[in-house]
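[Q] Does anyone have a clean structure-token version of this?
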Amino acid sequence: MGKSALPVYTGSMASGRKTFVVDTNVLIHRPDAILSFRDNDVVVPLWVLEELDRLKTHSDERGRNARHAIRFLDERGRLGNVQEGVRIENNITLRFAISKPDEVPRDILEDKADNKIILTAYALHNDGESVFFVSKDINARVKAAALGLRAVDYEKQKVDINKLYTGFVRIDIKNETYERLESQGEIDWSEQLVSNQFVVLNDKEHDEEIIGLFRREAGTVRYVDHRMPSVVGVRPLNDEQRMAFELLLDPSINIVTLVGKAGTGKTLLAIAAGLKQVLEDKVYSRVLVSRPVIPMGKDIGYLPGAKNEKLSHWMQPLFDNLEFVLNVYHQHNAKSTEQLINNNTIELEALSYIRGRSLPKQFIIVDEAQNLSPHEVKTIVSRAGMDSKVVLTGDPFQIDSPYLDANSNGLSYLVETFKGQDLFGHMLMNRSERSPLAELAAELL
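[A] Here you go.
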């Protein structure tokens, strides 16, 4: 970016503007996060630059985002004096700053970068600026609040998990509407719904339910029969699973999200639908399965062997579902997971290696997607080539990433962002079918 592209800001702070001091994890979460603070001042502490410099050599998503953030700051920093403040996009003033030793509270350690970043915000606060410390780290926000600072999470790309789109609505209808949909297979629908949203219609007179799928382009509700052939030996055990299968088996829907607690069948249904459309229907060339490499508990360290051997440890939950499917599916001589992998029917891939690939005509399953940031989800979904389908599954209340929560993870964000798109389908699954014990654990623990 040339130096003449944006005007240099050389004056004092504009009256009424807020000062947002951003933590390193905000820029790792979203490298261009600074642009979200329209009409305000953004301060990047020098210690944030130090942490970005340390992270830039990493080969994972954090390293890539650190490099992206450094380039972003460098381009804007060359527009003027960043110590005084330089005006960038969205009427934002960008500054780099460092805490002053004489303003450091007594007994506050400065040997940690996190503390130095917070103390930079504290120094600006003492100078009379309206300071907000922005961090994805809860503990950092608590420490900042203890110093009297206003500490906030980075709210961009956050949703209200309590109002997350469910994928279906329940509506009471008259008996004649119930019978007309079942007999005709489709009825016109004028009530406000979003594309690919299910309608569970209840005939109160006879206490019966019927499922319909709304198609926005036609303005109709299509009948969905509760009864359906098994999908490679797997049958839906409740209405939620039946509706999920309808989305998974529809080639016109290119991206599906299945959100729910443990035991609701999210991964099992996705794998069964993928295998059917590869082995029987020949809609896709292979099933590609992946999940974030985030262990629960202490990491087990270096794993020897080739890629598939390394990934097999992290993919074991997917193998468990595959083995269940293969136990009830005896066609095509698919007797083992190894055989499916060896003949390229199923491919295991680390999410780190999906970047840069183009994946045409594949059924792509991303399990445990709640552990991905919105930026990581964008990276994965944008890899889908022509005639591919992407399925993301996960439980927003079981997150292992330290800087994500139920409201800010990429899975929840994608659900709310894609809601209403013709190529998107979603199902919120609440009923566990794994076992009575699993259901009890999900409810009480």
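[Q] Thanks! Anything notable?
[A] Residues 61-77 form the longest helix (17 residues).
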